[in-house]
Fold each of these.
Amino acid sequence: MTTTTNKTWRTICDSSDLVKDSGICALLVNEANEQKVEEQIAIFHLPNSEEKIYAVGNYDPIGKANVLYRGIVGCIADEPVVASPLYKQHFSLKTGRCLQEEQSIAVYDIRIENELVQVFY
Amino acid sequence: MNSDKQLLSKAKIVVVGNGMVGHHFVEEMAKNSDYQITVLSAESRLAYDRVHLSEYFGGKTAEDLAMTTPEHYEELGVTFKTNAKVTNIDKSAKVVTTESGDSFEYDKLILATGSYPFVPPIPGGDVEHSLVYRTIDDLEAIQASADVSKVGVVIGGGLLGLEAAKAVKELGLETHVVEFAPQLMGVQVDGGGGRLLKTKIEELGVQVHTSKATNEIVAGDKHRYKLCFSDGTELETDLILFSAGIRPYDNLAREFDLEIGARGGIVIDNQCQTSDVDIYAIGECALWNNFIFGLVAPGYAMAKVVAKHIGGEEAEFTGADMSTKLKLMGVEVGSIGDAHAKTEGSLTYTYENQPEGVYKKIVVSSDKKSLLGAVLIGDTSEYDTLLQYMLNAIELPESPEGLILPMAADKPTLGVDALPDTATICSCHNVTKGDIIAAIDCGAVDVGQVKSGTKAGSGCGGCAALVKSVADNEFEKRGVEVKKDICEHFAYSRKELFDIVSVEKIKTFDELLSSHGRGLGCEICKPVAASVLASVWNDYILKKPHLSLQDTNDTYLGNMQKDGTYSVVPRIAGGEITPDKLIVLGQVAKKYNLYTKITGGARVDLFGARVEQLPPIWKELVDAGFETGHAYGKSLRTVKSCVGSTWCRYGVQDSMTMAIDLENRYKGLRAPHKIKFGVSGCTRECAEAQGKDIGIIATENGWNLFVGGNGGMKPRHGDLFATDLDDETLVKYVDRILMFYVQTGDRLQRTSVWMDNLEGGLAYLQDVIMKDSLGITDALEEQMAAIVGSYQCEWKTTLEDPEALKRFQPFVNSDKSDSNIQFVTEREQIRPARGEEKIAVTFIPSVENDATEKEAVAEEA
């Protein structure tokens, strides 16, 4: 993991852009390297859950497409999850672990500060 | 050579006759490979289903009725000869010889020669259009005669006579039944039942003449023949069909000195052996305990006994229950055990409801403790319970009359625990309670698996409710909770959630979750709730509170493809489209470079649209007059149609207009699963309507309605629900059926499975929809009217809502597109690029050292 230098909290959008109990997608562009590198993250807003806001990688490693933000969110045995819209596997929003297969997705630190949604990258 | 040797060493079994029972014996015996079986049949066809013979006139072919094929017998290693009438049996040399002179050695000989129709010796009866009803050849003769006849008379008012009358009626003739006895079906039904049966049969347009003995048949004045009865009356007819009982085909046995009963029939013992121990007789040619069984089930039982006995197992035929339940020309008739109360000291209870045409009688022992018999006419719903009482000698409740009284407050239902393991639950497939328990022992975890494992309930379906209660009872005993919960968040089935939402007037998922659920929900309960809320309230599905409940297909109003793009499918009702609109589709597809394909549902599918392209694409389509096609929804998809009487030389109704009207009526309706219709303009069925959830086929007089058809993984033909409906009634029934399905169907349950799981099956659904047995048809129609009245094109509404359009922007913080979506060209159109064809752009963060790394698209080169 050499892509990110100078990690810091960066603002993504307004908290009003979030959709309750659903996901949106953001593009992280890391210009620290010579090459511009794009990362897609899925941001989920679950106001009734413990942490309220989660950010994970948007790429579905099983379906091999950038779609996870379009999945339905909920919980499986109290673990907040998103279900892949392609083949319905569950990914934990806390750990990124897939509950059905040996796969994981990245998890990002995310917070809401002064009505702004910020990701640490 | 080796195989010849093996053949030589095998014991030889020769079976004479290849009717249903002879064939059943072959199947049973062939399970044991130690024997070489040879079948000799005098008929030109191998075994076929005589029980369903009358369906030959309902469109079934000889192939449909066939029970086996030459290939099947070859697979079983069975040698067979048709047109091979046996004319000689040499018992000492153990050889049979056929008419053509071929000889066959046997170690064991099985006579399964069956029976022939008895034709009473009436003077003048042996004329050209005097026929019998027994074989497919007979049916062909009847059909040919009917073509040149107007009136048909069936002589004989027994079970087979009424079946024959049904066939004559279906051939379009004025139909009469003449019975010597004072009542119909005298064997199975008592006097009271017979009277009611006569009334009901006459209501169906068949004239019944009882207590009539035919003295002679002479030339008629208006019609071909005249029957002269002993009481001086006469009846003119063109066609005479004898169905006056059967006689055993015992001539071979008679000729070669096997013991024969005084009134015919080859005498057999409990092992079905004749007076020669190496010769067995089974089926309708056999006389057991001075009785000939004219039903197929006892014949099957005999066949099993013989196969076991030859194989060295102990087996015994000890008689058979002759109880029957059937539908004669739509009239339900049931007869159990001692229907005539012949047992000494027996007592009877009778219930008769003339206005509704229902007659029920039970016969009980003198101590009122056990059931001896029963007669049911017009309503056989208690048949299963009564039969179990009798077969298993279960003690009757204190007031046995409660078993047949309609208003009995707490009608005694038979606890399934009371049934012994040997109790037959499904008589079509001979499945006992023990078989069901064994299926559960072997891992069946729900009623569906029990049914598919044992075949129980898959014949006539009459036992479906009993199968379910036996299985559920067993599950309960084992502590297996019969769980209908849709997921861990709701302890309810879809139907229960539907009721909760309607009754408590719940309008959002949050309300539903906080009042009846737990946790946050999931991808199972959320779409179910969305579907139920849409069915009950028909709100725009992307309204804020419903937005997060939808599957991605519903959220983006398109079908997600493997690469995350969507397909675009506008509605083309009935497949009818103007050239101008077709051009618009082509122009839009070209402009946005979409892969274009004609679908199986007669519309056009455009693939490869990115989320952000969906609104502009749909704007162009909506502006040109298109609407959403709901290809993404659990809702009405297409109504497939032929052009019908408008263009087609054969069409008898305007199927095109009907298809378009129906598609426009039900578009947007949310259901447990997708729904497809088909409308065919004539019986040629070019629209394949019988393979659709709702199938409609034009007739000369209106429309035939089929329900529960399906293509796909488990093809199923729809059940014929109603015939010759006018437009208005057709729509009314479809309204009710669909709404009932929407309310009671399980999550992702197509109508085919829904039908299979309805307790009481087709007959129950017909009662609910056509007879309003639940008193809900008005409500069903109202609900449908509300949904039809509040239809909106979801794409049109979405395009007018800036808030909703925000969802179609791929990134919240950028105007870029997903660079991982890439296409290559194939056959002059786009297709998604495969992993190795893609150009790396996006970084996929690697997680630990998992397997994805290898295939991650964007690993730097």
Amino acid sequence: MSTRLQTGGTIIDRGQQIEFRWNGKRLRGFSGDTLASALLANNQMLLGRSFKYHRPRGLVASGAEEPNALVGLGEGARFEPNQRATTTELFSGLTAQPQNAWPSLEFDIGALNKMMTRFFPAGFYYKTFMYPRAAWKHVFEPVIRKAAGLGAAPKDPDADTYEHYHTHTDVMVIGGGISGLAAALEAGRSGARVLLVEQTANFGGRAIVDGVEIDGGDAESWINETLKTLNEMDNVTVVNRCLGAGVYDHGYVLAYQRLTDHTPDKDGPRHRLWRIRAKQVVTATGALERPLSFAGNDVPGVMLAGAVRDYATLYGVSVGDRVVIATNNDDAYRTAITLHRAGLIVPVIVDARPEANGTLPEQARALGIRIDTGKAIAKVKGGKRVTGVSLCVQAGEGSVLEEVACDAVAMSGGWSPVVHLWSHCGGKLNWDAEQAMFRPDPKRPPTGADGNGMLHVAGTANGYLDAASALADAGQAGRDAAKDAGFKPAAGTAPKAVSEAEAPILPVWSMPQGAGVKLQMKTFLDYQNDVKVSDVRLAAREGYESVEHTKRYTTLGMATDQGKLSNINGLAILADSLNAEIPRVGTTTFRPPYQPISMGAIAGSARAELFKPVRKSPVHAWFEDNGAVWEPVGDWRRPYTIRQAGENQKDAVKREILNTRQNVGLLDASTLGKIIVKGPDAGKFLDLLYTNMMSTLKPGFCRYGLMCTENGFLTDDGVVARLDEDTFLCHTTSGGSDRIHAWMEDWLQTEWWDFKVYTANLTEQYAQIAVVGPKARQVLEKLGGMDVSKESLPFMRFAEGTLAGIPARAFRISFSGELSYEIAVPASQGRAFWDKCLEAGAEFGIQPYGTEALHVMRAEKGFIMIGDETDGTIIPQDLNLNWAISKKKADFLGKRAQERSHMTDPDRWKLVGLLTENPADVLPDGAYAVDGTTAPTGIKTTIGRVTSSYYSPTLDRSIAMGLVKHGPERMGEVIDFPTTEGAVIKAKIVDPVFFDPEGEKQNV
Amino acid sequence: MSDVQSVLGGASFDGAVKVTEAGVQGMITLRGDLGSEALAKAVKSAVGLAVPAPLAVKSGAKGAVAWMSPDELLLTVPYDQAEAAVAKLTKALADEHHLAVNVSDARAVFTLSGDAVRDVLAKGTPADVSPAGFKPGVIRRSQLGLVAAAFWMTSDTEVTVVCFRSVGEYMYNWLCTAAKPGTLPIVS
Amino acid sequence: MLLLTCPNCGVEADETELSAGGQAHLKRFAAGSSDDEFESYLFHRSNAKGVHFERWRHSYGCGKWFLAARDTNTLEVFGTYPAQTPEPPKDLIAAIKKKRPDWKGFAK
């Protein structure tokens, strides 16, 4: 059993007991524990079920690379799935549940999948469930959905807060082990701004556990001393519990800080996402131990040797009373020695190498530990817990020599430098055959904006596995990074480390070497995704030669593992199956983040009201208080209707329209774009921008204009007013102001930079209020201050003055066909002006109206709407707007495109009005017209479509606009619009101006 | 003036950094040849200050002037003097191609004050707001939160933030969230 | 997340502050141009793997357009220069050639 030892545990505080809950049970740990160490201390070895076969799984590792111990953490609005027990710091009241187990961890029904192992080979999903097709939807998918996936999604909105933080630094050091500390110290001494992040709460990495000696003292003293020095340096920032998650283009780095995970009662954000711009990055990310590939290497109790040592040294926890060591290198002997010294039994060290005579093996021998060289584990015995191992010769096929009883196995297949961050942004790797590992190729680093390397790797991560050379390398990396960031580091004063010399590793990719299929089927490469040696070999046999394809086919190294444990072993098996060298097979692409980061951290504060900025007009608050139903228009919110008590949507629209047509309506048109274009060349410029002539517009006059892209397609429309000889005010659509302003600047800056024209986007300078309807003039006269008579201010003119004491510019323009004034006032006085209009208009029956009434009224008049009648493929000619296309101008944006053969094709669909035979039928928006013929494919031939369709209260019937092939030539014809329900709506082609075709109402 | 309403009516929040909506502020966009003598004279006459160098902002008794782009300045004056200042600039630069417009009402202005003002900005802008890149006298236009903003320091512990009026409420809420007690400073 | 120095205001701008505007140095063909010329102007882009000239706008900053010479493969930025430049500056071309001897040179 696993248990807490009487002594030991360098980072736990035995004086501070902590209570927590696991799987409903109340358990105790110590301050400093991780959830993993506390569970082991309570003999909880079985922690979860595997993804595919629901095999019982226990802890394998002690850090970020842990593949199995993913738990559901917290409850309710603080529940989070897939939290790693090894990186979860224990706190009082912690609640965790196992996941992927149903109905219980001890008895999991999904484990029946295990019986089906032989039916779940590589590519299983691709090969099965293909036929019959209906079965996928009704049988396979529902069953697989229930069984698939890791953990359960939280049901409640996250109760915590998160934030982002941007910072700029000269040198960023990722990893707070001794290498990271040494690199940061060297870089910091050069005067460079240094940011050091460490993913755990503790600094020093493996040095303490491995008993490294630095500068004649123990590692711990040196670590503490160095931290103190760093913290005293003004130019150095040190952050723990902060994961260097990803390295991106041009020195952009994301780091993920966990602020309150270990103290959930503390206020403030739970996680902080650091968005870092570093001139140079140093990764001191250490190395990860590889599992050995032997049958039963996933039985709970089989762990990495380094992790076993961590639990004993750091947490004072033994993983078992009798621990068999399996290794191909010297490092695992440290585990044997540590356990022996802790009073535990190491029955045997199974070393695959023919001999083991290094310093560490000799130390173990001297302690009386049995060392069996040239041997391998044939098979691990036990189900939910290791009960023993059978041994065989490494060179053979697995004939059992003897059985050894034990309750844990500590394995070591060697160490792989963590090269993930180096690789995120394109750093290349070399295969080091002697040390059996990929290591960064300093000649092919990830490069920054200047084309030079932007990342240095330090210490173990760079392939220097022994502390002495790692520290020397790290100091150099720190100095190099400072130098590359533009600083002048002094000559090295790096500390000297001493650790035991180690004999070479023997690469062992299969244990025993000749393991047959039966053993391979029990030998796991990727614990998290349940990928076995046999799966990779099968993939190779089926022709998967590319490592990237094999990864996807077998799921090796997918999900959160990202190749941490499985990568090299899987590659080696693939290489062996293909009879190729490992470097020839290559490695998969490591992608950020190195470790999963929370969704909350990615979102930062952009939640709820901060999720997306909403643009609000100066009158917004009035609508909020008076029953507005909102409609998003671009980033704005505009009132769709302003509902009165007890009114439904349809009735509100009808009331707003009829009141406007009969009395007077009030519209907040503030969102309309308003762009000033000024200069001696302003007229010339606008002639190029608009399809019609603007330079001939006289000051004081307004003109409706169309804008097209160079493709010839309509992009915006609006009324242009000429304020004076040099100055135009261009109105754009509500959603279009920023886009059109940018469009103008683009042409002025990059094509016609010789034009003397300045623009300014004044959209938000003015509130624009439309007073619309037969009594509009009376309302304005009552406000007083300006002559708004027909004579002084005729249609398509504007005037400046004051209304109700507020400076105003009044435009006689109409989008409804009514007598209409659009009044621009300073935005800060917009609300006041609105209130005064309501007050003055009360006796005339004034009522505000929303965007739906606006839309219906414009459709009644046959006015087009950008985004309804246009969709990015419509030219003005399609909408019979030829009158607004100048024939005199030599050039305007879109002119050449409109001369292309497809644009002049007489078969293009053109705008018409549509009246349904039954006035109560409202054509569905976007409905297609058909001509009754059918293409050979069986598809009906379409000859048009509806672009706008409404019930018109004014006409008390439905109206629609649409684009129809040869439409304008087919007036009076009836065409068919099949509905999705199978019915057919018949509609007559008519002129699109349904109401007041002579314009008598607006010209009063 | 009673009809004049700033976007949040002078709201303020006492967080780890104090956030105040600064009320209406007279602002003028002036585009033209920033090297011209006439323009320098007109600016001097309007705010009593010389044309600033790129990314610089200057302030004095009459107002302030900030460099916005190679052909654009932002002038600040009291709100009720903006229209007159625009008219004066337009007249002074009548012989020169230029554009002077009142943009006072198109903006929302905020003041942040406290020791950790830089950290508040750093929660939302990719611009370098450390002392290495940002100090009194420097103006930066960038993204803040999810919207466009301009910001400059009026002292080591005070920052002015300007954004568009329509997103003033968003900006205020964003700033208050970033300035929440207990979240600052980021690095002590 | 690229970093490009805006030549108009001098800010080393994070990509967040920028908007991309596609290939630079296109010659506009307007009314009166042939179908081939217009097709090429409207639709044909180089899609280079390697040296590429492109348009950027410092949209959250000074609002000005500028041009950049960049390697689309390594993301190395060879230089940025004002938008009012009909062809890439000679010294920039020379600098790129030095770094990329195999580069065929700027083609109009």
Amino acid sequence: MTAERLKTKAEQGYAAQFSELESRSSSQDWVQRLREDAMSEFNAIGLPHRRVEEWKYTDLRARIGEVYGPAGDAAALSGEKLATLLGPLGDIDAVRLVLVNGVLDEALSDLAALSGSCEILPLHKAVDDAPDWVRGMLTTVNPPRPADATVALNQAFLANGVALRTRMAAPGRLEKPIMIVHVTGGESERPTSAMTRNLLAIGDGVEATVVEAHVQLGTMPSQVNAVTETMLGERASLQHIKAQTEGAETTHLSTWMTRLGAQASYRAFQFSTGGALSRNQIFVAFAGEGASSHLNGAVMARGGQHNDTTMVVDHAVPGCESREFYKLVLDDAARGIVQCKVNVHRDAQKSDGHQAAHAMLLSEAAEFDSKPELEIFADDVVCGHGSTSGQVDEEFLFYLRSRGIPEPQARALLISAFTGEAIAKVDDEAVRGAFQTMAEAWLADEGA
Amino acid sequence: MAAVQETVEHVKEMEVDKYKYGFETDIETVKAPKGLNEDIVRFISDKKGEPQWMLDWRLEAYRRWLTMDEPKWSRVHYPKIDFQDLYYYAAPKSTEGPKSLDEVDPELLETYAKLGIPLKEQEILAGVRKQDEPSQLDDVESGNSGYGKVAIDAVFDSVSVVTTFKKELAKAGVIFCPISEAVKEHPDLVKKYLSTVVPTSDNYYATLNSAVFSDGSFVYIPEGVRCPMELSTYFRINEKQTGQFERTLIIADKGSYVSYLEGCTAPMRDENQLHAAVVELVALDDAEIKYSTVQNWYPGDKEGKGGVYNFVTKRGDCRGRNSKISWTQVETGSAITWKYPSCILRGDNSVGEFYSIAISNGYQQVDSGTKMIHLGKNTSSRIISKGIAAGRSDNTYRGLVSAHRKATGARNFTACDSLLIGDQCGAHTIPYIEAKNSQATFEHEATTSKISDDQLFYCQARGMNEEEAVALIVNGFVRDVIQKLPMEFMAETQRLIGISLEGSVG
């Protein structure tokens, strides 16, 4: 680098934290190199701002004023406490992996239940032992291009999280959903940060459901940066579900990077109601023909919440199918953003892509920005996108009221029907039920 | 597929191999020295006999331009332009103040004849040239009134050489003249409206244009007047290595209506030519402006060499209540098109429309679209964009629809469809949709496809041969936009589009 960029306070904060981490780091050389390269990459690009096209609507430089310190040693978390944090999600019959500020809490996790079907390693152990599959996956799955600052940061602080690999023969099926619970924060009186990296390797012909739940302990603001790298083998099938319900002062930066083998099926769903600022990124790359990716989601935001969903789907090989379907309900001065870019490469013939984002604005001050982008270089493709934004339909409202339903209930009914269309796309019945309950609770909160 | 192959060949014939308008007219020209500096700006201003305020305005823009960087965000690639290697002013020598058509250099008129423009004004111009009678104009005026008449402000390189129908327009109170003349004769109007829609500092090329614009058209339609004829301008870039910097300003006063046509062809050149025009439209209360463009500049040869760089800033301001601005464009030419005719919907109940056909072939690059900025209440806008990419071209639609906080009841409908012909081209869609008002309703849809086998099969099952079926489908694909074109442009457009309509229109 020739000219040193002027660093913001937050960028300096990250640099300082990095040098602290470096001094007590003892992991292998290759990991250290990964971290250092990532940190210099971050130093070169800095926190994204609105002149960075991918971050046009989410100005991190302005929104992240200072960097919070890591949470340190995890506070002991009781099973009851966890159940409260999870709410309706706690009722889902799943095998749990609990990460408290990124650190795998073995007591709260059902490691034994998974021992037969999966190999599970806390990330720090995974990088120290460095089995080939871990080494092969880290950062090679589907890194965003151009380099993304939040992913680079996550890489620079690579230490916590969990690495999971199925070890079943094809065709295999994981009976119960695996729920990775990300608990952020603690009982202390200071704001904290957590950087988490998860690796999911779903073997050839294996069918699994993974739910990632992001919840918050305590009320202090926190900064979450969570990256999940997912690799699907041939004909593998994964339902990848996320629920994000952190506190109203939390900054949530999340990236899913997924690579699909031939004829694999990836069905993602993100349900997001929490956080002051949330940025949910999904990068999907098709590596084998005949695969399909469905990215669906529902966002409910109010107050001053800022919720950004950014997706990039890369049709690098022929014959793949992609769908994106998002519904947003925005109240008060909330701002919702959906950006999705579908790339179809020159020889990716027979690609089929369709994306849709629909927003319902409940108040004058709410804002919805959408950028459905298509970049197509092959001629035998069917691609399309749709985006709408509007309000509760007065005629529907009148119809319901004329049938004796009071206005608030009628309104709630219409909103829940609106988000319901997205939530219906969750395959797992228990998860779908929990999301419906959460959506209703959100609506009941209205005016409170 | 044979029919598709044939279509591709049609395109090649039409657009690349046989660029019909690649001739050069040998008229002596007066040129400013190469390069750009304050002296050139002064030279241009002096040549035009401009008042001091205009020169100051230009100089300010020039100084601003020096501080700006070329925009890099568009999806187009080209070698860096050396702005010091261009001529910024070229005027045909024989055109110093022609008062009537018969004073016009015959060669110039021949140029128009060669263009083969199926427009009324071409006949008129040819007629004048043949008969050499000064009474010709009057005959036309008295014998052929109302619909179908076109007044032309011909722009040959940089100077507006002749303006027809001035008298009749004057009767209606319409001012239609070169902008250089307007600066002198209607300074109040120019001062009041110039650069109020596209500020001098708006973007790199608009600022450059402000500094060096050579000529263009000025239109003022007074209150309550429906312009008695369609107004038209032909732009041609003729002189080697001359950038053409047109400036058009159209003002429709309260309750008035005007339809304006702009057509472009340029002779074949090896080196890239720069065209950086600025068009400003102002519609006051209840006024309507319809602005149609057919752009067919030289797209470069088979290897992608040469061709026009078309970097244009076009913007309309619906300033008054119930005003309407409608852009229709057919973009078939230019090596690079970088153009976003936009509407600022400021007045309550104002309407903005954008209808576009963009065809790219060979190595052409198109990055075009529109902006609809809803500021007033109950404003509505409609965007219909049809992109057809063939050969090795890239065709990008880039658009912004935004509703301001106060734009209650804003409505937008956007449909942008792309059709790909061949597997070496690219079609891209980059829409930005920003709703800051809950009472705004935005609908956006886009599709990208090739001609589907199902559609072909369906048509063929009904007795059409493959070629007819392809023609029908492509015809249907661009129909929404073709219908919005003024009658006068239909014939030329259909010829230019060849690709899609050949065979289906006979």
